[in-house]
Design goal:
About 50% of the residues lie in helices and about 15% in strands. By secondary structure, it is an alpha+beta fold. It folds into three domains: about 250 residues, no CATH class; about 220 residues, Spore Coat Polysaccharide Biosynthesis Protein SpsA, Chain A (Alpha-Beta Complex); about 100 residues, Thrombin, subunit H (Beta Barrel), CATH 2.40.10. The protein has a seven-stranded mixed sheet with strand order 3-2-1-4-8-6-9, sandwiched between helices. It has a six-stranded antiparallel beta barrel with strand order 14-15-16-19-18-17. Strand 18 and strand 19 form a beta hairpin. Helix 2 runs parallel beside helix 17, helix 4 packs across helix 11 and helix 4 runs antiparallel to helix 16. The longest helix is centred in the last third of the chain and has 31 residues. The protein is globular. The relative contact order is 0.10. It comes from Variovorax ginsengisoli.
Length: about 725
C-alpha cells in the first residue's frame, strides 16, 4: 500500500497560501475590470504573446501558466458577454441571444473542467509482481458475447489462453448470452469454459453478474469479445493490486486496430488521432491523478471482493461500466489507469453503428447524472465529483453544437442581434478567448486530438445525441441497451442519407444564410458591413465542418472479413522442395500474411508452402498458399489451421506485447493552419460526393423505364 506523503513543512506551505490568496484577489479584479476597445486589444495581444512565448518551453509549469492565462481571457469574455451584450430590445433577439449564451456558458464550464482533468496526467507505470509466481493471485477472464460471430470471438479466446500467467491460477470463461451450439463446441475444443444463462436480463452487466456468482477467482479480467489481449496483459495490470489493498479496478486503453467509420470514410486512419484517443491517451491519465479513473467495460481487471461489495456490475443504467466505477469510488476504494495498450479490438464498421454506440453512451451517462449524480451523495472528493460531472456534461453537447452551427443565421436571415455589441468589440473579446483556448488545448492534447476535429465528430452526432439525452434527463428509465455490432461487411460504397439528413438540413440552412449575407452586403446593411462579414465568416466555417460531416456519411466498402494490420517481424518461407528463404512481414490478418522478400521469386498463385513466425526463439510453422506475387512482395493465405496452430498464430501476432504499444500516442503535433487545410479538403470531397450522389439519383428518376418485353407471338401494329 502506498505510504501517505508527509504534509509540506510550514516554510513550503506559506508561499502556496500567499500565491492562492493573490490569485483569488487579483484574478477577479482582472476579469471584471471594464476596458475600452483599445485597452482590451492591448491586454489581449500582450497575454497572447506571453502564451506564445511560454508555448516554446517544455514542461508542465509553462502548461499550467498557459492554462491560467487562458482562464483569465475566457473569464473576461464570459463576464463581458453576460454583463454587456444581453441588452435586447425585442423578443426574437432575447430568445436567440439567450440560447447562444447558454451554449457558450456550457462550453466555458466544460473548458474549465477539462483543464482540471488534463493539466497534470499521472503517467502511472506498472508495478512489479512478486518474484515467485506461486504468490500471484488467481484470475478469472470473462469474455461476454451476445450476437457476435464466432470469427470475431475466436481470436480473443485464443489470445486469452496465451496470457503469460500460471495455468493453475487462470480460468477463461466465454459468457455466451446467445446460447449458441457452435460456441459450446469451440469452447470444449480449445479447453475454456462456456457459460450461459436462461435469460438476458440487464444485458452485458447481467451476463457478468451471473458469472460472478459461479466463479471464484480473486480477480476478474474483462474483455469485450473482439478485444484480443496481449500475453503481458496481466503482468502489466496486476502489480498495483498487490501494492494497494483498497485498489478496486485497473483500466488499460481500448486500442482499435481497424479504422472507425470516420477514419475509413475520411481516409484519416493512422494520420489523424481518432475520436477515442483523447479519452484513453489523456483524460483517463488525468483522471488517475484525482483517483477518478473510469471503468470502461473491457481491458480492465477488478478485485472480486470490492466488485461484489458494490453489488457487482451496475445495472441501473446502460453505461454499466462508468456507473460501476462511480460506486467503487463512493465506497472509498481506489482505481488506477495504465496508459499502455495491452489489448486491441475492432472499431465499429459503419457510421450508423458508430452513432448507435455513442447514443447508448450518451443516454447512459445522462441516466447516471439523474439517478446517481456525482455532485451529490457521499464518498467522493471534490476532484472526483468534477471529473465525473465533466464526463456527463460532455454528452450534453448536442444542443450547444446545433446552436453554434446555426447562430450566425439569426442575423443573416432575420437581422437578429444575438450578441448586442459592435463587431470590433466582439473581435476584441471573442477572438482572444478562442485563440487562447485552442493554443492551450493544442499544447495539452496535441498528440491525442488535433484542433477542430472534435467539432467534426460532434457535428455528425449532435442531433442524434441531443434527443436521447433530453429524454434521459426527463425520464432516465426510458430506453434499452443496444449491442454494438462488430465484424460486419460493407459490400458496396453508398451515401448514408439517413445518417446525413441532419447535416444536410443544416447545410441547406447555412447556404441560405450565405445567400442572405451576400444580399445584405449589397445595400441592405450598409451601416453594419463588419457585422455581416463576421457572420459570413462564421457561416463559412460551419459549412466547412458540415461538409466534412457529409463526407463521413459516404460509406466506404469493407469487404475484408479479417482486417489487415501492419507488422514488421522476421519470417521464413519453407518451400515444397526443402529450400527456405528469410524474409519479413509487412502486414497480417487472421486469414493471411504479407511478406517482403529479399529477392523476386517465381511462385504460381495457389502454390502451397509453409511460413514460419517466431515467439522468442521458438519457431511456429503455418501452411499457406500464394494469393499474389508482385515483385518482392508476396501475399499468403493460411490453409486450414488446427487449434494449436491458431493459438500459435495469435501468440506471434495480435498477442505480441509490443505490437500495440509501438503505435500508441505517436501522432506528431500539427499546426492549426494545416489542420484547417486538411478539414477543408475533406469538406470539398464531401460536397463533391454529395452532389454526385444526388445527381445520379436524379438521373435514375428521369431515365425512362425500359419497355416491357413483348410476347413472342405479338403482332406488329398496323
Amino acid at each position: 500500500m502506498t505510504t501517505p506523503a508527509a504534509p509540506p513543512p510550514p516554510s513550503h506551505r506559506l508561499p502556496r497560501i500567499v500565491a492562492w490568496a493573490i490569485t483569488l484577489v487579483v484574478l477577479p479584479m482582472i476579469v471584471i475590470t471594464p476596458l475600452t476597445l483599445h485597452q482590451q486589444l492591448t491586454l489581449s495581444v500582450a497575454i497572447f504573446i506571453a502564451a506564445l512565448v511560454l508555448n516554446r518551453f517544455p514542461g508542465r509549469i509553462p502548461t499550467l501558466v498557459m492554462i491560467f492565462l487562458s482562464v483569465i481571457v475566457s473569464s473576461r469574455y464570459m463576464y463581458w458577454r453576460i454583463t454587456e451584450t444581453m441588452y435586447m430590445d425585442n423578443l426574437l433577439d432575447l430568445v436567440l441571444g439567450s440560447g447562444l449564451l447558454m451554449a457558450e456558458i456550457y462550453a466555458f464550464v466544460v473548458l474549465l473542467l477539462g483543464y482540471i482533468q488534463t493539466a497534470w496526467p499521472l503517467e502511472r507505470k506498472p508495478h512489479p509482481l512478486p518474484d515467485d509466481p506461486r504468490d500471484w493471485p488467481t484470475v478469472d477472464v470473462f469474455i461476454p458475447t451476445y450476437n457476435e460471430p464466432l470469427s470475431v470471438v475466436r481470436p480473443t479466446v485464443l489470445a486469452a489462453q496465451s496470457i503469460d500467467w500460471p495455468p493453475d491460477k487462470i480460468n477463461i470463461y466465454v459468457l455466451d448470452d446467445g446460447r449458441r451450439e457452435e460456441f459450446r463446441v469451440f469452447c470444449e475444443g480449445v479447453g475454456v469454459h462456456h457459460v450461459t444463462r436462461d435469460n438476458n436480463r440487464h444485458a452485458k452487466a447481467g451476463n457478468i453478474n451471473a458469472a460472478l456468482k459461479n466463479t471464484s477467482g480473486e480477480f476478474i479480467a474483462i474483455f469485450d469479445c473482439d478485444h484480443t489481449p496481449t500475453r503481458s496483459f496481466l503482468q502489466i495490470a496486476m502489480g498495483w493490486f498487490g501494492r494497494d489493498p483498497k485498489l478496486g479496478m485497473v483500466q488499460t486503453p481500448h486500442y482499435f486496430f481497424s479504422a472507425d467509420p470516420f477514419e475509413k470514410n475520411l481516409d484519416t486512419f493512422g494520420t489523424v488521432p481518432n475520436e477515442g484517443e483523447l479519452f484513453y491517451g489523456l483524460i483517463q491519465d488525468g483522471n488517475d491523478l484525482w483517483n477518478a479513473t473510469f471503468f470502461c467495460g473491457s481491458c480492465a481487471v477488478l478485485r472480486r471482493t470490492i466488485c461484489e461489495e458494490v453489488g457487482g456490475i451496475a445495472v441501473e443504467t446502460v453505461t454499466e461500466d462508468a456507473h460501476t466505477a462511480l460506486k467503487i469510488h463512493r465506497r472509498g476504494y481506489n482505481t488506477a489507469y495504465l496508459a499502455l495498450p495491452q489489448a486491441a479490438g475492432l472499431a465499429t464498421e459503419s457510421l450508423s453503428g458508430h452513432v448507435g454506440q455513442r447514443i447508448r453512451w450518451a443516454r447512459g451517462m445522462t441516466q447516471i447524472f439523474r439517478v446517481d449524480n456525482p455532485l451529490f451523495g457521499r464518498g467522493l472528493s471534490w476532484a472526483q465529483r468534477l471529473c465525473y460531472i465533466n464526463a456527463m456534461l460532455h454528452f450534453l453537447y448536442g444542443l450547444p453544437r446545433i446552436i453554434y452551427l446555426t447562430a450566425p443565421l439569426a442575423y443573416l436571415l432575420f437581422g437578429a442581434s444575438v450578441i448586442h455589441a459592435s463587431a470590433p468589440m466582439i473581435f476584441a473579446y471573442a477572438l482572444p478567448h478562442l485563440f487562447h483556448a485552442n493554443l492551450t488545448n493544442s499544447r495539452i492534447q496535441g498528440r491525442f486530438r488535433y484542433l477542430f476535429w472534435n467539432e467534426v465528430y460532434e457535428a455528425v452526432l449532435a442531433w442524434y445525441i441531443f434527443r436521447p439525452t433530453l429524454v434521459a434527463l426527463i425520464n432516465p428509465k426510458l430506453g434499452s441497451f443496444n449491442v454494438t455490432a462488430k465484424g460486419g461487411l460493407i459490400q458496396e460504397q453508398y451515401f448514408d442519407t439517413e445518417i446525413a439528413k441532419a447535416s444536410l438540413f443544416l447545410l441547406a440552412l447555412n447556404f441560405l444564410g450565405v445567400a442572405a449575407g451576400l444580399w445584405r452586403l449589397t445595400w441592405v446593411d450598409a451601416d453594419n458591413i463588419a457585422t455581416v462579414w463576421l457572420n459570413l465568416a462564421w457561416t463559412a466555417y460551419n459549412l466547412m465542418i458540415l461538409g466534412a460531416c457529409v463526407a463521413a456519411a459516404n460509406e466506404s466498402r469493407q469487404v475484408r472479413g479479417a482486417h489487415r494490420v501492419t507488422l514488421n517481424v522476421p519470417a521464413t518461407l519453407h518451400f515444397a522442395d526443402g529450400h527456405s528463404m528469410r524474409c519479413n512481414t509487412f502486414d497480417f490478418s487472421s486469414g493471411g500474411l504479407g511478406l517482403e522478400l529479399p529477392t523476386e521469386i517465381a511462385l504460381a498463385q495457389e502454390a502451397p508452402l509453409e511460413v514460419a513466425l517466431y515467439r522468442g526463439e521458438t519457431e511456429y510453422r503455418f501452411p499457406a498458399t500464394v494469393r499474389f506475387n508482385r515483385g518482392k512482395r508476396l501475399g499468403l493465405q493460411f490453409t486450414a489451421l488446427d487449434f494449436a496452430q491458431e493459438r500459435a498464430l495469435v501468440q506471434c501476432t495480435t498477442a505480441r506485447a509490443d505490437i500495440w504499444a509501438a503505435r500508441w500516442g505517436n501522432h506528431p503535433r500539427v499546426p492549426a493552419h494545416r489542420v484547417i487545410g486538411h478539414i477543408a479538403r475533406i469538406s470539398l470531397v464531401g460536397f463533391r460526393d454529395m452532389f454526385g450522389h444526388y445527381a445520379r439519383a436524379a438521373g435514375r428518376k428521369l431515365r425512362p423505364a425500359p419497355a416491357a418485353p413483348r410476347p413472342a407471338n405479338a403482332k406488329e401494329p398496323t
